[in-house]
Amino acid sequence: MRLRQPPVPPLPSSATFRDRTAIVTGGNTGIGLGVARELLRLQCKTLILACRSPSRAESARQSLLAEFPSLPPDTIQFKSLDLDSYTSVQNFVAEIRRDVPVVDLLVLNAGAGFFPTLETSAEHHERTIQTMYLSNVLLLLSLLPHLEASKDKSGRVSHVTWVGSRMIYPIIQKNVLPADDESILGYFDNPEHYVMMERYGQSKLLCLAFFYELCQRLGRDRVIMNMVCPGAVATELARYMPLVYKPLVWVYYKLVNRTTEKGAWLVLNPSLVAGAHSHGAFYGDENVEPVHPFFKTEAGSHLQRRVWEETMVEMGKTQLVTDSLGLN
């Protein structure tokens, strides 16, 4: 990450989210809370905070209602979502399908990382990969038909913004990736390959590879998707780091971090400003990042295809019927 980040322009005065509905995962803290606050300022009709902790979500909800006292209380809703568990993801999706007829924007922001040693999720995968990548894929694919159906009801194409990271670049440069002859998920589940400071970037590389492949199969007339790296923003992402790292993290954030408000502006920029032109693009700050040369090589293209295929097999273990998505 750069030690000096460029200025962040606010969203234009013409930007609006009036009378629309958004889901923000991890909307109770950090960038997610900043996005939630900004959407309310832009006159969001229904804001769903998808969070793991009911108490922390309710605290964030009450704080937001206090900031926007004219809002009806049911403007901000909490729905339980624990990305450590496929069952929780599926229960969340079932609630959305039942209770929320139109979803205009899905922000995939939540995830956990920087565990001192390899930890295993409820699904028996390394937790960073589970929460940053696999469960986000399941959530996205499971909601995709509902997002598409939203257009028939609202007349608007729904948007998905996935929070990514340029921390993928050193991972590519160092080539800390699975070999061609080994399972991708098996590689990341192996404790021998776990390095705390590399795993976040590795998980985001999987996200980007899957994102690129999905967008090739999904036209912008169905759902508009983008990925955004908002740069260094002071969040709770490093909360699991060993204590010895905490002073360094504190100093780093003090020197270079952006506020969550500025992070929110960058996360919302593709969907609210760029619109349909953001489909399939990975944004670094407010600008589209060129496709990394790695993905244009035979090795990069092969990895992207393998990530897609192995992930879709993993998704097939759930109750999600991938054939019905028309993406194979």
Automatic annotation (TrEMBL):
GO terms for molecular function: oxidoreductase activity. The keyword Amino-acid biosynthesis does not apply. The keyword Oxidoreductase applies. Keywords: Oxidoreductase. Transmembrane segments: none annotated. Gene3D superfamilies: NAD(P)-binding Rossmann-like Domain. Pfam families: adh_short. InterPro entries: NAD(P)-bd_dom_sf, SDR_fam. PANTHER family: DEHYDROGENASE_REDUCTASE FAMILY PROTEIN, PUTATIVE-RELATED, PHOSPHATIDYLINOSITOL-GLYCAN BIOSYNTHESIS CLASS F PROTEIN-RELATED. This is Short-chain dehydrogenase/reductase family protein. It comes from Aspergillus ellipticus CBS 707.79.
